[in-house]
Write a structure and sequence with these properties.
By secondary structure, the chain is mostly helical. 69% of the residues lie in helices and 10% in strands. 19% of the residues are buried.
Length: 196
């Protein structure tokens, strides 16, 4: 994401571009058109967020007062049109920023779900190709833990009070905790590592 300075600088740049276009239209058509600033506010809201678009709205009101409303070249902020423009710009900023934010959240969620579904398909395919129980265990401990977003896991067979570990993976912190538990004597009575 762009920094605050870049986003607010872009808002100011778009507003200046709006001033140039508005003055050009005024020269060509003979009448000022302040709604050009609605486009600059909308673009700012779409690409740079709500803060910069509100900043662009304020700059647009200043530009409209200075370049289009009499007396030209002076700031007075006494015209009723300015309140109407400001209301339109603020509503435009909030609606477009809110919609853009919702679209970004939905896109991010959809990408995360698609990525997880692809990884799950990879696990399912690898499981279908596994020939031995040890192969199944390796898939589950490797790819399966990643899909489950787990950092450690264990696949084993329990027979009475004996645990035969087929495959395991532990994070560093889990390994350190396991060693500490083994030293103090708690845990399972018998623990054997089976063949890979």
């Amino acid at each position: 994401m762009k920094s605050h300075v870049e986003r607010y600088g872009a808002a100011a740049g778009l507003t200046l571009a709006g001033v140039a276009i508005a003055l050009l239209f005024q020269r060509v058509r003979g009448i000022p058109d302040a709604m050009i600033f609605a486009a600059t506010v909308a673009l700012t809201a779409r690409f740079f967020g709500v803060g910069p678009s509100l900043f662009a709205s304020a700059l647009s009101i200043v530009a409209i007062d200075f370049t289009m409303l009499p007396p030209l070249g002076r700031l007075e902020f006494t015209h009723p049109e300015e309140i109407a423009y400001l209301a339109v710009f603020v509503v435009l900023s909030l609606v477009i920023s809110g919609t853009t934010h919702s679209l970004r959240v939905a896109q991010s969620t959809a990408e995360r779900i698609a990525s997880r579904a692809t990884r799950l398909l990879d696990v399912t395919t690898a499981l279908a190709e596994a020939e031995l129980p040890a192969d199944v265990a390796r898939v589950m401990i490797g790819q399966g833990l990643e899909v489950a977003e787990a950092v450690s896991g264990l696949i084993g067979v329990v027979n009475g009070d004996e645990l035969r570990v087929i495959e395991r993976r532990a994070s560093r912190s889990v390994t350190a905790t396991h060693r500490s538990t083994a030293t103090t004597g708690s845990g399972l009575a018998r623990h054997t590592k089976g063949p890979p």
